[in-house]
Prior knowledge:
The protein is α+β, with helices and mostly antiparallel strands and 488 residues long.
Amino acid sequence: MKKLIYPLIYIACSMLTSCSDSFLEVVPMGQRVASTTADYDLLMNNMDFYRDQSYSINGWLEPQLMGDEAAASGAYLMQSPVHAVRLFQWQGTVYQQNDQIPTFLRSSVTNIYTFNKVIAEVMDATNGTTQQKEILRAEARASRAWTNFQMINYYAKPYAAATAATDPGFPIIDKADATIPSYNRGTVQQMYDFIISDLTEAIKVLPVTPRIRTRFSKAAAEGLLGKVYLFMGRTSDALPLLNAAFADLAQSEVKLYDYNVTLGPNGTFLPADPNYGPAGPGNDFNDFTEDILSKIFTNDPQSPWYVTTRGLGLTAQAAALFDSRDLRLKLYSSNTVDGTPDPNGLLRKYGVRYSRFGLQLSELYLLRAECKARLDDLTGAVADLEMLRRNRMPADAYAVPAVAAGDKNALVHFVIDERIREFALEGYRWFDMRRLSVDPLFAGITFTHTVYNADGTVSNYTLQQPDRLVMQIPELFILSNPGMQNNP
């Protein structure tokens, strides 16, 4: 881990070199360090916190490849880097000693360093009001919590109350200090407690309305904390936070697109580009309409530089979850990236070049619907589901079927299926697979992958639970932290 942290000092100190001439006359170029409140504000505006560089393999690449709603064309998959093949096959060791450190892990550790710097130093910054400094510190805390939530869901077991206090976690890095000799993993419970503490403190200070959707607001932190609690199985704690997020969003411009309008006759998302699909947020990284907290990663299988997802498509089981009238199907193509009909009948998601993985309004509705269903408020759950579905489906199709609307367990399952319909092939499913594996309502759940080989044969892979629901920490990290225990 030190191999990643040492360069961070340079990164944090050099980010602000594009400053005013008057300041450069005092501090030579390349030697500037954050000192004013405005400096720390610029640190928190770093693009790396909310968008990957174009065509870099960042964001939820691993979850995209590991979600069981995805099938793969072998002809394309075998063009991908070896670690992509290992991920799709749910192999134990994905990143070997000589492999590149995964980009998302590297960027996450880098970002945590900057968040720690802001948290520790901003209150002593010159200029700026106390309120401005407290808001910046709260943004850094919430951002650190968001990042840690990703890491604990990559590199530790799903949260289970009975074992969380002993299950190995992910290292808690709470100081911007590259001289710390090594880290230990702690426990899953310790990391979740740390995440909850950061978000709880941030909510007290964050503004209801952010200056821009890439920065944390009170509603974003409330929604994220509600999601954290739901993933912990603490549904009664999650629901008040999700309700609070909706209340705060009443003062915002966040809204759902109505696909009946945007994908209807003469809709603003049409005509669909034959290569990239309909317009809208999936093809415009500057469209924040549905973002509560905007974080975007490039998901462009059309690009030859991004071969890792070129051959992914919906499994037959995932495709069967869609009503034929569901307008979200217009985000899919039955053609390959080469423009020819897919020989295996796979539907390729071509309307989402930019996947949003921060916090979307659509997910907030689904999180609250799931909480309500689990707490026996079936009417409230159906109302939230139908609020989303009426913006994705025509009037004769959006109603929740009676067989699901009247039964608690069936309704929870319906919400999970709706999450696939809304977010398929974007990485969300992997996180749901993990938490469902320890959920009594989904006892016995299994996960499979299918590769359609170029010679016409089919290869099937079954995820081995529980070990393969956890990624191994890359070997370079283990070697840099003597005694650190890796995952099986």
